[in-house]
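Protein record
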Amino acid sequence: MELYWHDSLEWLYPDQLKENALKTKTPVLDVPRGGIASIVLAVDQVPAETEIVIAADTPGCQLFEMVDVCVNINTAEDCFAAMNGKTVSKSAVRLAPYRVYDPLKPCGGTFRGPGAILVQFPVKRNAKTGENTITLTVSDGIERKEMSFRYCVHAVTLPEVGKGSIFLTNWTSWANLKRESGAEVFTPKFWRKVAEHAAMMKHARQNMFLVPLTPFLKYDNGSFSLDTKNLKKLIQVYTDAGIHWIEGGHLAYRGEGGWTATDFEVLCSKNSVQSVAGNGDLAAICRPLMDFIRKNKLENRWIQHATDEPIYENATAFRVLTGLIRKYMPGIPLMDAVCQTEYTPGALDIWCPQVQNYQADQAKFEAMRAQGDHLWTYTCCCPGGPYLNRLLDGELTRPLLLGWGCGNYGLEGFLHWGWNYNLSYPDGSRQDPFEETATKHTSGPNYLPPGDTHLVYPGRDGTVWSSCRLEAQREGMEDWELIRQLMKKDPVKCRKIIRTVFRAFNDFTPEPAAIRKARKALLKELTIC
């Protein structure tokens, strides 16, 4: 039996358990109070399906079996997946098809080898500073070995996830919540599954949740009614999990014409937002929603979407839509994913461009901020190639470095659509996130890149599983909080540290060792300050 330590920010492959192993026998992990120390232990040179038993000498140590998935199609150089003539990204870490560890199954210390486990130790917010050692005892039934690592707690404390932490949202598929729970919406089993996902979001430092409006709206004979009882229940489930901000779902979608449609249609009724009927529909939806917000004192928690990714062709309809929402939901901030500024000034309070669009038009977006608006960023099926994203065939450090990039530009939040959107198809089949990580879009010719649809997995044991990418993004959120703290105290030193690993969203240093060094520098400077 051979044992190897690996950095948790380095992809690990079932056919390469020894490659890129850490050379030191007792690695040291630098963590703030309230952070999580993470490291990977690979077990090799045992017969297939050997039962491996691992025990830690420290209470609170958590063990997750790393499960492999198939990267069936690579990301393209520009965006989407490399299908329909698109070129494979020059930045791809490996050419598809191949298998890589991503899902993380809670294992309680027993799994089948050869393979690997992620070891995590959550550090309490009142932990003493200094170094501590954790030793793992590993047995394959014949041999028994010990492996140790150290974690160094620095005198820096992360803020609690909630109202004051950095904005993070990932959108949830209700169809998949229903499928995973095996129950209809609003039943006890369904609510338990929602709560389980909410707890995982809190672990990932997510502090905002999307409220899709269609499950709570009844549309019958041209009139709307709002299910306030179940809407209140949903908000309570997430609030109990510690997630503060509420993200009201989109009120309209593109009409005929697809991506370049010139109009938007109100959800459920499908009336044009620019029509008298559409105006009435929005009033019938937004006024009761605003009454609910006021009655439950949610005015300072609610942020509202209008529609998704408006472009030049539908700019007029977008401005009409946002104007009507402001009329019927006064005082509620509006936020949307939008990649241009020229045609929508004044329409939004929170601008959320994709990383490559922000970078290309930084001056224009910053002009919106100078006028009092707020700036977030997002990724989805784009960008590909050299840009940071959360995909399966870019370096595992990319999800983490998104936090460094956002911190560098002083952005306030990050959005992604793909929390658990394993897609369903018209023929009744659905994407298997373990074997089909890149898949055809449900509308249009494009293929979504590997991992774009999901950051968590529907566990084979019936629970929701985290992923290596989610844990990397969580570490990036921790670092973003550290950057925000140091920017307030010493922006010159902070930017000097940032530049060692991040210069732009398509210019960064992906090596885990460099990122670990930069994190340690942040922690040391904060301790000095």
Q: What stands out?
A: The longest helix spans residues 468-489. The chain has eleven helices and 29 strands. The CA atoms of residues 125 and 292 lie 36 Å apart. The mean pLDDT is 96.
